[in-house]
């Protein structure tokens, strides 16, 4: 199934998808993220957001939940199931399209072509993080021990995988340039 997904992405992705993904991503960065950040700041009293941190602990998550107050926690949960369901799809779309376009020059039999599935792992960690943090916020002041301990791990993995997904664009560009230079020489 994953092989078919990866192959299908290579088959259907083209420059038009790159343009669309880039425009959507750019609009989110320029307009939606600042609006959402301001809205979140107002609702939570300017408190930090655990999902924007790279490292934090379960205790930090409970401290944030306390700082937010009841209305802030409610706003946080609502944002996780509205905005934070769309935003990960936006960066997923951009990364999958770019990686698929860059690595499509590799031989069909190369296992490196599966790299276009890497952003899906980051997206999955983001969804687990949203669920975990929302559950902790929802149940606060009750403790949700296992979830509270796992949520920071999901966040760390999310950021590592998203950064890795952006990082693989660089060798992808090199691979594509070398491929087309070799093709022109022939």
Taken as a percent bin, the fraction of beta residues is: under 5%
Query: What is the alpha-carbon Rg in Å?
Result: 19 Å
End-to-end Cα distance, whole Å, is 36 Å
The percentage helix is over 70%
Q: What is the typical, i.e. mean, pLDDT?
A: 95
Number of helices: 7
Ranges with pLDDT <50 over ≥5 residues? none
Shape: elongated
Element order, helices and strands?
HHHHHHH
Oligomeric category: single chain
Structural class: mainly alpha
What is the fold's blueprint, element by element?
Blueprint: H1 2-12, H2 15-44, H3 58-80, H4 83-103, H5 118-139, H6 145-167, H7 169-185
Helix pairs in contact: 2-4, 3-5, 3-6, 4-5, 4-7, 5-6
Task: Describe it.
Keywords: Membrane, Transmembrane, Transmembrane helix. Helix 4 packs antiparallel against helix 5. The chain has helices at residues 2-12, 15-44, 58-80, 83-103, 118-139, 145-167, 169-185. With 186 residues, it is mainly α. Helix content is 79%, strand content 0%.
Short description:
With 186 residues, this protein is mostly helical. Helix content is 79%, strand content 0%.
Q: Which short descriptors sum up this protein?
A:
transmembrane helix; membrane; 186 residues; single chain; mainly alpha; 7 helices
